[in-house]
Amino acid sequence: MAIPSHNGRFSAYIAAVDVVLFTIQGGTLKVLLVKRHQPPYRGAWALPGGMVGEEESVDKAALRELQEKTNVDHIYLEQLYTFGEPHRDPRGRVITVAYYALVNWQQFRLTARHRAAEANWFAVKRLPALAFDHARIVEYALERLRSKINYTTVGFQLLPRQFTLTELQRSYEVILGQGLDKRNFRRKMLQLGILKGTRDFTATGRQRPARLYTFAEPKVVKLQEKGIIVPF
Amino acid sequence: MAIPSHNGRFSAYIAAVDVVLFTIQGGTLKVLLVKRHQPPYRGAWALPGGMVGEEESVDKAALRELQEKTNVDHIYLEQLYTFGEPHRDPRGRVITVAYYALVNWQQFRLTARHRAAEANWFAVKRLPALAFDHARIVEYALERLRSKINYTTVGFQLLPRQFTLTELQRSYEVILGQGLDKRNFRRKMLQLGILKGTRDFTATGRQRPARLYTFAEPKVVKLQEKGIIVPF
DNA sequence: ACAAAAGTGTTGAGAGTACACCCATGC
DNA sequence: GCATGGGTGTACTCTCAACACTTTTGT
Q1: B154-226 CATH, one of 3.40.50.300, 3.30.980.10, 1.10.10.10, 3.30.1130.10
Q2: Are A63 and A228 in contact (CB under 8 A)?
Q3: How many CB atoms are closer than 10 A to CB B163?
């Protein structure tokens, strides 16, 4: 970057961000997509995203995009990969930095502005045709999520502040796409020392009430994960 | 990226790549730096890099940068992170995609063009002051390398085609910054099934000759690692 | 009493870790 | 014969995986 390009010709790029926003709803892993109203790919579904502003960092731009679309308190946001094929956008020379993020479905509400823009959740297993190279980006995000859930605590971001161990297990199962042994799962989670049992229980349904847990030690998490957890 | 920016103002960026090129020489982990001849940071050391050309992908640009500076057959190259703080380059609005790469010292020769440009290897423990945010980029690359060496085979890229187990162990020790137990290391490496013992031995020095190994199953590697291994 | 989910322990296999001595070669 | 690095095995601990029954609640 120090030196002008190899052949003296370098070009201006538009820098953009795209966000793969995951949630779990009804036992299914979903991503948020918005409908495009302008060409190219008019009418197609695309990842939420936008241009990076003049005076903002790329990370900030990704956060702003999320803020515009959600009203969630904390969001786990992590840079995923940068896509810069020369013709990935037919308008030319758009380089996009992809992020992925996780939100808890109950806390999540689309902002009014965004409901108008036709945003919708889609099951990752049944995505519509996507604009640009967005299908590839989603695939990449999913891969990263599946790998990171094994050695970090990203999975917790999908749950409300208080949750049962079974709910936690369901998130893991949905993301990994396979069932897990209840006893092994609980033992492992508990001995990680990052869960704090509360005295509360689920409102009695027609079964035995389940103990509610919270996620302890946010400090550890901040350190462990390279992502950006920001209160806005 | 689908939609013009939030406030209708978006700006053109220069897209650049920077490469953190590692090698091991004399038992020390080193990175390649080039001296800057133009402002800003004139006279300072910086990571090799350059602008992304009009008709090339970002990945290609990183490869090209490496090609210009080295004459190595295969290079392990992996995208690291994208840095886009608004004022990271005083000239303004330069977004850089950082990569890291590993080369084997013996195969490596600086190209003539690059010797002229004053490129030099520096021990990662004793870096000079670096231009821009390059110190941070190196730090980040080092962190990634240390973490990836534990579950991938990146370490092999630092060695010649044939190598002894002790040489392999030394690479790991240098990268991790700690000694490893010889017996455990050898057992683990051999039972991974990715090493193939040859019938050759090191030229007899003044000790017992050591068996030479090669790295088998390039297919496995391709799959395991998300990086780009390209013959040029 | 029954349906439905919560909760709980043990065993065996494999991986990681700690640890010390003999071997082949050149001089 | 000695200096130098090459090469080898065992015992302990810990983690992971497999596996089934009892408890609490509402109806």
Answers
A1: 1.10.10.10
A2: yes
A3: 21
What φ, ψ does residue A157 adopt, rounded to 5°?
-70, -15
**Res B136: pLDDT:** 97
Q: Is B195 helix (H, G, I), strand (E, B) or coil?
A: strand
Half-sphere exposure at residue A80, Cβ-oriented, CA atoms within 13 angstroms: 28
CATH 3.90.79.10 domain residues, chain B: 2-148
Distance (Å, whole) CA B123 – CA B48: 16
**Span(s) in chain B for CATH 1.10.10.10:** 154-226
For residue A180, the distance in angstroms to the closest alpha carbon of chain B comes to 23
CA atoms within 13 A on the CB side of A18: 32
State which fold the B2-148 domain adopts.
Answer: Nucleoside Triphosphate Pyrophosphohydrolase (3.90.79)
pLDDT 10s digits, B76-123: 899 999 999 999 999 888 999 999 999 998 888 777 666 667 889 999
Closest-CA residue of chain A to B1: A50
Tell me whether residue A118 is one of the annotated catalytic residues: yes
Q: What pLDDT digit, counting tens, does each position of B52-70 carry?
A: 998 899 999 999 998 888 7
Q: What residues of A are in contact with residue B97 (Cβ under 8 Å)?
A: 82, 84, 95
Peptide bond into A40 cis (omega under 30): yes
- Strand C, nucleotides < 7 Å from a protein CB: these are 3-10, 16-20, 23-27
Considering only the beta carbons, identify the residue of A12, A85, A97 that sits closest to B84: A97
Instruction: Judge contact between A54 and B9, C-beta under 8 A.
Output: yes
Residue B198 to residues A106, A161, B83, B215: CA-CA distances in angstroms?
60, 57, 44, 10
Residues B34, A131: C-beta atoms closer than 8 Å: no
List pLDDT tens digits, range A126-140. 999 999 999 999 999
pLDDT at B70 (0 to 100): 79
Contacts of residue A132 in chain B, CB cutoff 8 Å? 1-2
Cα A189 to Cα B216: distance, rounded to the nearest angstrom: 38
C1' of C1 to CA of A144 (Å): 49
